[in-house]
Each structure stands twice: as C-alpha cells, then as structure tokens.
Specification:
This protein is α/β, with parallel strands linked by helices and 186 residues long. The chain contains 7 helices and 8 strands. The strands form 2 sheets. The chain has a 5-stranded parallel sheet, sandwiched between helices. The chain has a 3-stranded parallel sheet with strand order 1-2-3, with helices on one face.
Amino acid sequence: RDIVFLLIGKFLGKKAVLQLHFGCADRRYKWIPAGRALIKVATFLADKVLVYDLDIVEFLGINNAQLVINGIESSDISVFEKKRQVIYGGWMIEEKGVFELLNAWRSMDKKDGWKMVLAGPASPEALLKLNSIIEIDETITYLGHVSRDEFRNQLNQSAIFALPSHTEGLPYAVLEGMDASCCLIV
C-alpha cells in the first residue's frame, strides 16, 4: 500500500514522507527477504524516511532517514522516589481535557497530601484560566513549558500520570508514563 501511494506521489510530482513505526528489535523486522526488499523500495521512493532508531538506517541502508524522538527511552526509575503527585503534560487547551481534569481535582474534598503538577505551553487566555484555578487550590502547580528532561524528571517522581485528552495521535506521553512506572489515568 505504501509503495502504491509513494508511486502515485512521484507520478504527480509530490514529495512524500514515509514513517517506519518500528525498529531493529521489532519482531516484524525478522521478515522474509521479500518483505525486506519491499521496505527498501518504499524507503527509496520516499523523499524522507522518519525512523525511531539509527540501527534500522544501517540495517536497511536508508540514505534519506530522519531520526525522530522515541517516546520511550531507557530510564532507571529506581533512583527516583515516587511522590504523592499526579502529573499532566501537554498543551493547556480544552481539547486535551486539562480543565476537566482540574475541575475533577478541585471537586475532591480530601487530597491527603497529594499534589497536581501541570507541564506544557498555554495561550494567554488559558494561562489566565489556569492562574484563577491555582489561586483557589494550592495543591496545583503549573510549571509552564519545560524541557523534555525536566518533564521526564517530574514524570519519574510522580505516582500518577493523567492524560484526559479528547484527541491524540500516537500518545507518546502515555508510553512515557508507563515507562516511568506511573499509574495511568487516560
């Protein structure tokens, strides 16, 4: 199917990007030679090939590869002590369900030392809404937009990861939450 779309794109003079959703360790990679040949044809036809690891580039001999961030990286959570902390990471917009999460959090009568941490960018309007909620509830902390390393650090320290999103493509954040041994609310 990918090869057909790539050929049509070439015929129409359109650029095409192919994303390989697997790496060298993936079992699907132990294909018969014909399967490997088809993937090589697809990568040849694509203008750019997005990959999750560089081993696949070497294995297939891909010349037009672009490495993309893998949501799951090896981490050693044993060095972190889990806090009574729920973390949300993402855009502070209605579609991500963050304000519903905050309303649910605020409706809890007793929090027993638990805290809510929010990380991610916010528009000026969303920031006003967030600040009005935080003024009422001191158990909520908004970190703003943080680096990937800082988010991973906060995630590793949190007991629960919440992503009440109404829409997600491939939710790397959920995979990262699982990697950090968090309980998930999604």
